[in-house]
Amino acid sequence: MRGSSVGLCFLALTIAHVTEIQARLVRNHVSSICSTWGREHFKTFDGDVYQFPGMCEYNLVSDCHDTFPEFSVHMKRNENDGNPTVSYVVVTITDFAFHLSKDVVTVNDLPVKLPHYEAGVQVERNAVYIKLQSKVGIIVMWNLDDAVMVEIDNDYTNRTCGLCGDFNGVPVYNEFLLYGRKISPIEFGNIHKVHRPNDDCEDPYEEEDVSQEAMNVPESCKEFQNTCEEMLHAETWSSCTKLIDPEPYIQACVQDMCGCTNHSDDFCVCSTLSEFSRQCSHAGGEPPNWRTSEFCAKQCPFNMVYEESGSPCVDTCTHQDTSSFCEDHKMDGCFCPPGTVFDDISMRGCIAQSECQCKHGKIYESGEVYRQEREECTCFEGRWACESLSTPSTCAVEEGSHVTTFDGKDFTFHGDCYYTLAKVERKDDASPTFTILVKLVPCAHQEYDTCLKTIKILLNNDRHNVLTFTADGAVKQNMQSISLPYFSGDISIFHASSFHIILQTSFGLQIQIQHVPLMQVYVSLEQSYREKTRGLCGNYNMVLSDDMNTRQGIVEGSAAAFSNSWKASHICQDREDRLDDPCSFSVENEKYANHWCALLRQPNSTFAECHSVVDPEIYYKRCTYASCNCEKSEDCLCAVFSSYTRACASKGVFLTDWRENVCEKYTKNCPASQTFSYKNQRCQLTCSSLSLKQQSCTSDFLPVDGCSCAEGHYLDDNGICVPVAKCPCYHNEVYVKSGKSISTNNERWMPQSVNLVVGVPVASLMMNNCGNKTVHNSFGVITENVPCGSTGTTCSKRVRIQLGRNEIKLSRGRVEEDDLGHGPQIEYKIRNVGLYVVVESEIGMAVMWDRKTAVRILLEPTHSGEVCGLCGNFDGDGQNDYTTQGQLVVSNLLEFANSWKVSSSCPDAEVNIDPCAVTPGRHQWAKLMCSIIIGETFKECHKKVSPFPFYENCVKDSCACDTGGDCECFCTAVAAYAQACNEHDVCIAWRTPEICRE
User: Fold this and answer.
1) Residues 956 and 835: beta-carbon distance below 8 Å
2) 686: closest CA among 758, 611, 754?
3) What's this model's pTM, rounded to 2 decimal places?
4) What is the pLDDT of residue 504?
5) Label partner for 739 (CA 20 to 30 A): which of 142, 202, 486, 806?
6) Is 882:890 a contact under the CB 8 Å cutoff?
7) DSSP letter at 582?
8) Any idea which UniProt keywords this protein has (predicted)?
9) What average pLDDT does this structure show over 313-329?
């Protein structure tokens, strides 16, 4: 259930490069299809074709062998210009009623916009059909005219009732027998009438003469017999007549033409020909394109063309490989001409792939460039071709306890000592070495309310050459206070605003120190420092998995074990990971945190402007944690908000006015003559700095908020902003008022104005190609998700593994194997290992499935960099895992996951749902049950594998499964942590007769 925020359709987990799209072998689906068409014709699942002229609402098919039926399909006909057409179809699945009509689709009486997805049911509309597809195993298609087709899974064999029959595989048997006597189609149909209150619809009457002679084709209609036979026995239909007996359709054709008052009406003949064509496609045949502009013509939108048999999986500009993963059988409809794809970005119809645009926030024409923090990307044929930029990477300590490494790994640690944040012992002969220490201590009386109090920078790792920054904004060099701006050799230090201090060096190190409302630090290093750092900031090798490398060179699994190894003093006590939730100790704090932190996620808040480039979810979690944990809740809340705005600024999105409703007090407390700004990007010089030899600010840094002097003004000794003309001069540490002069060596000096220059560095480029290895074996893993409850959360319920020409399907505890009819032959084995089904292939890929909702994929290193999908690209760089199908690295989880839909017609997920917020009554139960992960049971594993992400997923899953199956969701989540422990050689016997007994 890890993909619960998306979970709309088929989501690709791992997909190798696809070079050619070929059709798969087609199965004959006719035996699981029921249909109605034309002048009251019905075909049952078992193959009977009969006529029933009823105009009431009837049960077409229902699941009749359960106390609580899973589904039902009802329909009603009416007369339209003398021809019977279907007026509406009602599909009920559990508690949801989908009412399909020509004008509107409603769900439980509420109108919805198509395509629509709800409760595992997708409803979509194309140029020909409305199609409803449910994960319970039913597909309903209506051509908005006379024909309805229902296809169901074989699991419903001998379980159905209605006009479609009992689906037992035996024609006539049961359907037209009642208490041992044979009944007519009229009587059979009337039995399945749906009785509504105040419904006065009359049943059709039986003909008085029911002899065989009366049922034969009347003499007056025999003239149409030859016409219908000639059409359906034509050589062009030979592919179909080999698979389907045409005789019932010839008789239906005759009856249609006989019943028409206007024999030139297309309805008289087109309806049955269309049905025979549909049945042929379902049977795996190839019906001819029998329509002409004068005979049964169909109109298509845009520049699409009508085909009798084509793939319903449409390749589009954003999903160019949809057809390569298509399981659906062919059908009639409007399709793009060969060599084109549908433009789903600007809706220009069918275009050549070379004309496709790209979309990310806005539309980019082919050849246009989009630049982000680490890449410069060019739109090319609907995909992005990206070049990596040699930009610095940043490590941060925020809210006193949240650390983000250079490689992007996040962890929480509540320290009480000096710790090595980053240490560089070698780079090159010209650059100095340095060590950055941070002092983390409890803020007040709460053990886990942690504050960053001090930052020390040891140049050349010399304890006698130390720069110290403290939380009150003071700066010292070797314990001596210094005033800012400060320039000395390779280092400059200055105020960017009243909230921020910047340390800039000439050797590729920049440090931003924030001290309002809390002390936070951001250390940026150029790419030349890659693989040359150690400490809490990690080793800067762009690999997340080894960031927790201790001083002794051991990769730890817990934040505490890792961080304790980087204590600067052995006297300090080791700290432990915090396993409880700080919000669980105070209802008031929890309400405060949930109320204010929700601003980060609200779609109409100021922060929403940044949601597409920085996912707010991790900051929301940090916000609730910090707000509940801190003694000064507002300070911690505002610190997280400022952290989010900084992350946005690093992506090129500059948020303003976010302090208007929260954290406003910091904008009102500016010193006299200073003003608050959200976008300070120049150093604040003082009058005293004008006497220094270096009088320019050459640093380039992210815009910061805070108070500062207006441009062209300087801080004097009284902290007042004054124009340069009013700045005093300094001589021998004595200041001289503006306008006064002094004499030195018989020369007179007076203050003069100064020009400032801001320098911007030039970025260098390097190539970064996705999937640049030659892929010899095509493989892929696709998971189909279904709802786990009423909150919209989904579980992986069906897994498709494609290995060359073979496809293995894992679903409902069963394993199926199919021959796709194309591709290389790849050997594989299927084994049962404990609770798992394991599929192992000779190409170095294995899939583990727990027969329920958990899927694990294992790849050998030989596939590094050649895969893509929801599992990332396996290239060793943890910061580019969110690469879309269009080859663009994004920060937003929804944008990333939506791009990997296999079906282009499936609607995008638009909201990342928090199931515990939707079902608050289950939240406490979920936390109680899932506490087994952070409790004594798994204690031996905590130092090897961090339990926090598994605990959070467990709580979320257990909240989500609110319509049954909650224990399955809980057990799967705990089993995932147990499996992770096993992989680190910690075996936990956690199952009991009361908990997840197997």
Assistant:
1) no
2) 754
3) 0.79
4) 94
5) 486
6) yes
7) G
8) Disulfide bond, Glycoprotein, Repeat, Secreted, Signal
9) 87
Prior bond of 993 cis (ω within 30°)? no
Q: Give the helix ranges, DSSP H, for 566-697.
A: 587-597, 617-629, 633-650, 665-668
Instruction: List beta partners, residue 992.
Output: none
Q: How far is CA 500 from CA 249, 382, 470, 488, 619, in A?
A: 81, 42, 12, 20, 21
Reported as type and span, the H/E element at residue 62 is strand 57-63
**Would you give the DSSP letter of residue 965?**
-
Alpha-carbon gap, residue 311 to 708, rounded angstroms: 63
Q: How far apart are CA 387 and CA 226, in angstroms?
A: 68
DSSP 316: B
| Unique residue bearing structure tokens 């934040």 | 559
Of the pLDDT bands very low, low, confident and very high (cuts 50, 70, 90), residue 942 is very high
Which uninterrupted H or E stretch holds 394? Answer: strand 393-398
Looking up tokens 């915090």 gives 578
- What is the number of other CB atoms lying within 10 angstroms of the CB of residue 759? 9
Mean pLDDT of 988-994: 92
The mean pLDDT value of the chain amounts to 85
Q: Look up tokens 């039913």; give the residue.
A: 138
Indicate the SS3 state at residue 123.
Answer: strand
Element (H, E) at 798: strand 794-803
pLDDT (mean) for 761-765: 20
Name the nearest CA neighbour of 100 among 68, 127, 122. Answer: 122
Q: Cα(295)–Cα(304) distance, rounded to whole angstroms?
A: 19
> Which tops the pLDDT comparison, 207 or 166?
166
User: Which amino acid makes up residue 580?
Assistant: D
Residue 951 DSSP class: H
Contact between residue 328 and residue 133 where contact means Cβ atoms under 8 Å apart: no
Name the pairing type of β-strands 480-481 and 375-380. Answer: unpaired
Is residue 81 predicted with pLDDT exceeding 90?
A: no
Residues in the chain: 998
168-174 long-range contacts, CB within 8 A, separation 24+:
168/46, 169/31, 169/46, 170/46, 171/44, 171/46, 171/47, 171/48, 172/46, 172/48, 173/46
Which two structure tokens, joined as six digits, stand for 239?
Answer: 């592919």
d(CA 22, CA 19): 10
Residue 796 makes CB contacts below 8 A (sequence gap 6+) with 1, 3, 783, 784, 785, 853, 854, 855
The single-letter code of the amino acid at 45 is F
Do 853 and 813 meet the contact criterion of CB atoms below 8 Å apart?
A: no
What is the DSSP-derived secondary structure letter of residue 841?
E
Contact yes or no for 58/74 (Cβ under 8 A): yes
Around Cβ 758, how many Cβ atoms within 10 Å?
12
pLDDT surpasses 80 at 315: yes
DSSP state of 567: B
Beta bridge partners of 503: 493, 511
pLDDT computed for residue 352 by the predictor: 96
Q: Residues with Cβ < 8 Å from 181, sequence gap 6 or more?
A: none
Neighbours of 355 (CB within 10 A): 16
Six token digits for residue 481: 């206070």
Peptide bond before 915: cis, by omega within 30 degrees of 0? no
| DSSP sequence for 614-642 | S-SHHHHHHHHHHHHH-SSHHHHHHHHHH
Contacts of residue 665, Cβ cutoff 8 Å, sequence gap at least 6: none
Domains in the chain with CATH codes: 10-17+771-899 (no CATH), 29-196 (3.40.1000), 212-282 (no CATH), 305-356 (2.10.25), 359-389 (no CATH), 392-574 (3.40.1000.10), 915-983 (no CATH)
Amino acid, res. 850: D
Phi first, then psi, for residue 508 (nearest 5°) are 90, 15
* Paired tokens of 498: 């009243």
pLDDT at 752 over 60: no
User: Which residues on neighbouring strands pair with residue 121, listed in sequence order?
Assistant: 118, 134
What pLDDT sits at residue 475? 97
Question: Can you tell me the distance from the alpha carbon of 435 to that of 534, in angstroms, rounded to the nearest whole number?
Answer: 9
